Amino acid sequence: MTKLLTFLAWLAVLIMWGCAATVYVSAATYGKYIAVVGLGFPFCVAAVLAVGAVCLLLKPRLVWIPVVGLVGCFGSVRDYFPVNLSSPPPKGTLKVMSYNTLALGNMRMSDDSVNYEVVRYIIDQRPDIVCLQEVSFRNDEDRGRMTRSMRRYGYHFETIWVGENQLGVMARMPIADKRVVCHSKGNGFAAFSLVPRRGDTITVVCAHLESMHLSGEERSEYHELVKSPTKADKVHGKLTLVRKIATGGYERALQADTLAQFIDRHKGRKLIVMGDFNDTPISYAHHQVCSRLTDCFRATGNGIGRSFNRDAIYVRIDNIFCSSHFKPYAMRIDTSVSWSDHYPMVGYLKELGSK
After folding, report:
1. Domain identity same for 289 and 343
2. 8 Å CB contact between 346 and 332
3. What global pTM score does this model have?
4. Side-by-side strand order, sheet with 202-208
5. Is the dihedral of CA 100, 105, 106, 111 positive or negative?
6. Where does a domain end: 80, 106, 136?
7. With contact defined as beta carbons under 8 Å apart, do 252 and 258 qualify?
8. Can you give the residue range of the structural domain that contains 42?
9. CA 28 to CA 253: how far, in whole Å?
10. Are residue 246 and residue 270 in the same domain, yes or no?
11. Which of 25, 98, 177, 341 could form a disulfide with 193 if both were Cys (CB 3.0 to 4.6 A apart)?
12. Residue 106 belongs to a domain with what CATH number?
């Protein structure tokens, strides 16, 4: 019994460590299927905890193995499931939001002059800077009407095409410049230069990294595949599913490298990166950014922070990062709105040195 439990404990720990280590491995360099491995991290943590419970009941002196495993993986666990004390924002903070709007809530209309429910919600929240992904309008006239409505509420608004998709920024300060930095067929990221009344220009990166392009049925299959790898032979179309996930991971790795290079070139400048990363906190794409900037949700949020709200996929794939010029407060996922297949991430940034 002792030998068997020791073997199972170390096996669970080593697999968990292996999943966590994939954040350092680029699918673009070492093979696209490496991107699939990290998806099993939360289930590996659950397995280690389960083995720990068994050890505690049957062989308490073996509990040190899962404990060491979890301690050695503490940073990754915190990436996935942060726990922080309450951090109410002080005066003088910027309220920021990132929201994949799913074509402005599939162009769901409101009953007032704002036109779209999604934009009505955003204006009611009164953020200072908003990054929007998957922005669509019914026509140019509607876009013009929307822009004029936003101006009445004190917002500057700019969009830019990234492949076949539009990214947008709403801000309570002028937007002096916008440019595409990286794009594939329909994903990538763009940089917007915001000019505050005081201080240096703030560069805001709105990102929408490569999707897995899974249908609703495939997302359900993906959940079953990751949750119960031993039942993989019962998952219909699993090879196509894994291939799609791996291909998406490969493209995101390339985009993440470009984003990392952009951040490095702008080192020392005020920088905020927001958007839909289409990947979990245990991923190469996430690590490339959080190793250079502060992950605001990790620093001040709590829990998994599920931001994709469809099917049984329970994960945070939307992020807000900031340079060392800012201190984040009270990051959260607003689950009160369901216009899109994503929930918005909302929080506050205090510029260090400002009163």
Report:
1. yes
2. yes
3. 0.92
4. 175-183, 188-194, 202-208, 270-276, 318-322, 294-295
5. negative
6. 80
7. no
8. 2-80
9. 6
10. yes
11. 177
12. 3.60.10.10
